[in-house]
Amino acid sequence: MPSSFDQFSILTLALTVLVAGIAGLARGFSGFGAALIFMPAGSALVGPAVAAPVLLVADGVLSLGFLPRAWLLARRRDVALMASGAVIGVPLGALILRHADPLLLRWVICGLASSMLLLLLSGWRYHGTPRAPVTAAVGAVAGLFGGLAQMTGPPVVAYWLSGKETHGTVRASIILFFGATTVFTFISYLASGIITAQALWLAALVAPAYALGLFTGSRAFHFASPEVFRRLCFALIAASVLTSLPVWR
């Protein structure tokens, strides 16, 4: 076992791999949701500043296969506008992740995940006219949450699901936007020193389980009931938050 893993027990590593697989399942099916499951639990297991780059690298590499089809189906102009806002938000989130107290970050991440879950459960959608400044502003907020805790998806989902596009188009737009923010975040993490050898080794360890989850989730997208799977994802997010609250240790 690489020396980078010395500070983690076998149980900690096994649980991290398990959570990564579950997170990949949600991501493969819906196009988002991995961070809402992985980050609360991963932050409790290995720390926020390790969990964030682990998810970034594993997801960024293993999701490359989704991009060609997403490019064909997505609303590319809207994605570009949203990405222009994320350019501002991502570095700020990375700066907070790099310098904030780890315990405080765990509370913030659990709070963010809980808030985003409530947003998704409420069914609230943005009903205003999707103007360019609003789209860019949503991208900035999503980028901030992404740089801090890889939680880019929920603000984007609540905004884009307000339109008349099909679920497949929205999913493709989300995937393409994630591809852009992954590049921004990797650069920000690298410049901030958040990308470490330990994070890269751990990303390699969880990658097979995450890949299996992505594959299974993407296959289920074509056969499973979206409503049933959505409820399952919400339950998994809630379980991840509740079991990862810093009050337990």
What's the mean pLDDT score?
A: 85
- Termini separation (Å)? 27 Å
User: In the residues, how many domains can be counted?
Assistant: 1
Number of helical stretches of at least 4 residues: 11
Query: Which structural class best describes the helix and strand composition?
Result: mainly alpha
The parts where pLDDT drops under 50 for at least 5 residues are none
Shape: globular
Order of helices and strands: HHHHHHHHHHH
Number of strands: 0
Tell me the helix content. over 70%
The biggest sheet amounts to: none
Summarize, please.
The chain has 249 residues and is mostly helical. The protein has one domain (7-248). 79% of the residues lie in helices and 0% in strands.
Could you walk me through the main structural features you see in this protein, from its secondary elements to its overall organization?
It is a multi-pass membrane protein. InterPro entries: TM_pro_TauE-like, TSUP. Belongs to the 4-toluene sulfonate uptake permease (TSUP) (TC 2.A.102) family. It holds the Pfam family TauE. This protein is mainly alpha-helical and 249 residues long. The chain has one domain (7-248). It contains eleven helices and no strands. Helix 2 packs parallel to helix 11 (226-244), helix 4 packs across helix 9 and helix 6 (102-122) runs antiparallel to helix 11. The protein is globular.
